[in-house]
Each structure stands twice: as C-alpha cells, then as structure tokens.
Specification:
Blueprint: H1 4-10, H2 32-44, H3 48-66, H4 75-113
Length: about 110
C-alpha cells in the first residue's frame, strides 16, 4: 500500500523559487491608491477640491489604461476613487447651492423687514 511519502518520491520535485508572472512594461505605473485616498478624503472631510482632483486624475488614468500606456492592475481602485471624487464634488455643489439659497433668503428677509 502506497503512502503519501511514496507518492512524492515518484514525482519529480522542483525546488526552484517561483517567479511572479511576467507583466508587460507600461509607460506609467497606476496611481489607484492615490486616487482612492483622494476620493475618500474628499468625501469624508467634505473637501470638494480634493474630490475634484480625484475625479480628474481618475478620468485621465482610466483613459491611459484603455490606451495601454498605464498599468491596468489598479483599474478598480482608480474607478472607485473617481466615483468617490464625483460624489464629493456633487455634494460640494449641493452644499454651495443650499448655502447660497440661505444667504439670498436672509438678504431678502433683512431688506423686507427693514
């Protein structure tokens, strides 16, 4: 009866270190982590300009990935960061509109109340 040890004796054992899968060289490395961090900061800290930066950088990086100029490994991180940047920018615009509306209402009330 064969044991597990006998099975390994029959097979050829390869003790060479395993190499990582070869990837093609790209002109640029992905910036997915940076874009994701900017998107999170823009959303959590309510900092619209940082969110806009994440949106623009994510958009440019997605185009570069589709053109084959940038490493597509960080595509998901880039997409999520871009979406978070868009949400942050949208919330900033809504906040500015609501704040501007309050200012207009206050100014009209002050002018009417005299």
């Amino acid at each position: 009866m064969a044991t597990d040890d006998d099975r390994f004796e029959d097979e050829e054992y390869d003790d060479r270190p395993r190499r990582r899968r070869e990837r093609p060289d790209y002109e640029q490395e992905h910036r997915g982590g940076l874009i994701l961090a900017l998107g999170i900061i823009g959303l959590v800290m309510s900092c619209g300009p940082v969110g806009i930066a994440a949106w623009i950088m994510g958009n440019n990086d997605m185009k570069a990935m589709e053109a084959g100029q940038m490493d597509p490994e960080g595509k998901q991180l880039t997409q999520v960061g871009k979406i978070l940047g868009m949400v942050s920018a949208l919330l900033m615009i809504i906040g500015l509109c609501v704040g501007g509306g309050f200012i207009v209402i206050a100014a009209l009330g002050a002018a009417a109340g005299g």
